[in-house]
Amino acid sequence: MNTALDPTGATAAYLAKLPKGAVETAAHYTQGSHWVLVIGKLAAVVACLIILRSGILPRIAAMTGSRNRQNFAVFATGFAALLLQALLLMPWTFYADLVRERSYGLSNLTTGAWLTQSFITAVAGALVGGLLFIPLYVIIRRAKQRWWMWSSALLALLIALATVFAPYAAGLFNRYEPLQPGVVHDVVTDLARQASLSGEEIVIYDGSKQTDRYTASVTGVGGTARIALSDTVMRDPVDIPAIRAVVAHEIGHYKHHHLLILAGAVALLSCIGLIMAAFAFPTALRLLGGGGVGGISDASGIPVLLAISAVFTLVTTPVVNTVMRLVERDADAYGLNLAREPDGAARALLATTSYRAPSPSRLEEVIFYDHPSIESRLRVAMEWKAAAQGR
C-alpha cells in the first residue's frame, strides 16, 4: 500500500535541494531588483526634468514650420522626447540591464550586442511613440476637457494590439527556426493535440544568446498557435517532464487568453492614469520647471506626461503584479492538468531560482512579484500530485 504524499514535506524536500549559497544569492538579486525598479522610475522622472528645462523641445517644434504642420511638430517633438529620455537613461540601463545581470550570471550578451539592441529599441520606440502622439494630441486639441475620455478608448485599442503582436517583435533580436523531429518535438506535438491547438508551429530560438533562463512561450492570432522553445531547455541532460510542464503552462496562457486579460487590466489602469494626468499636469509642469510649455495641448509638454506615467506605473505596480500572479496561478493549474507532470513542474521551478528568491515574505510577494513565489507554486504542484495519487 502506497504511503500518502505529504505536500508540505514534499515541498520542503524540493526546496532543500537548493544550495544555501544559491538561495542567498537569489534573495540578494531579487531584493536588489526591487530597488532597480524604483530607481529606474525616479531616473525617468529626472530625465524628463532635464529635457524640459533644456528648452530643446519648443525649439524642435518651432523648426517644423507653420501651424499647418501641427501633426508633424507633434511627431518630431515626441520622437525627440522619447529618444532623449532613452539616451539620458542609458548609463543607468547599462548598469541595471547588463552589468548587474552579468554579475549574477544572468546575461550572456556582449557589450556590443547590448548596445545594438538598446539602440534599435530606443529608435523604434521613439518612432512608434512619436506616431502615437499624433492622434493623442489631435484628441487633446479637439476634445478639450474631455480629452482623457476619448484618449482612453484609443489607448485601450493600442494596448490590445500591442499585447497581441509584441511577442513577434522578438524576431528583431533572435533567430527562430523549426524544431527538428525528435523526442522533444513529439512530446510538444502531443501536448498541442491534447489541448486542441490548431495549425500549431513549433520553433526553437537562440534565447541563450541573451540569458540562460529556462523558458518557452505560446503565441498566436486567428486560431493558429506558435510554440517557441528557448534553446536553454534543450541542454543536456534534456528533462522531458520539465519541458512538458513548461509548455503545458504556456499553452494554458494561450488557451485562457491571458494576454488579452492582462491587456484589459493594463488598459483600465491606463485610463485611470490618463484621468490622473489630466488633473496632475499643471502641478507636475510647475514642479518640473517647464516654463516654456503652453499647457497640456502643447506637445513640448510630452516629458510631463512621461514623468506622470513613470510615477503612476510605479505606484500601480502591486496592482499589475496581482493580476499577473492570478493568471500565472491559472496557467499552473491548466499545465498540471494537461501535462500531469508535477515533478517536472517542480524541477522547472527550481531552475528559476537564480533570478527569483524562492520564499519571499507575503508583503514582498504582493508588491513586487509578478509570479507566485516558487515555494507556493511547488506546494500547489505537490498538492496536485497528492490528489492525483488519491484518485
From TrEMBL:
Membrane-crossing segments per the record: 34-52, 72-94, 114-140, 147-170, 259-281, 302-320
Domain CAAX prenyl protease 1 N-terminal span(s) in chain numbering: 17-174
Keyword Transferase belongs to the record: no
Cofactors that this protein relies on: Zn(2+)
Keyword Transmembrane helix included in the entry's annotation: yes
Cofactor note: Binds 1 zinc ion per subunit.
Keywords noted in UniProt: Hydrolase, Membrane, Metal-binding, Metalloprotease, Protease, Transmembrane, Transmembrane helix, Zinc
Gene3D superfamilies referenced in this protein's UniProt entry, alphabetically: Metalloproteases ('zincins'), catalytic domain
Entry EC no(s): 3.4.24.84
Span of domain Peptidase M48: 181-384
InterPro entries referenced in this protein's UniProt entry, alphabetically: Peptidase_M48, Peptidase_M48_N
Entry-linked Pfam families: Peptidase_M48, Peptidase_M48_N
Coiled coil: none
PANTHER family in alphabetical order: CAAX PRENYL PROTEASE 1 (PTHR10120)
Protein name: STE24 endopeptidase
Species, as recorded: Sphingomonas xinjiangensis
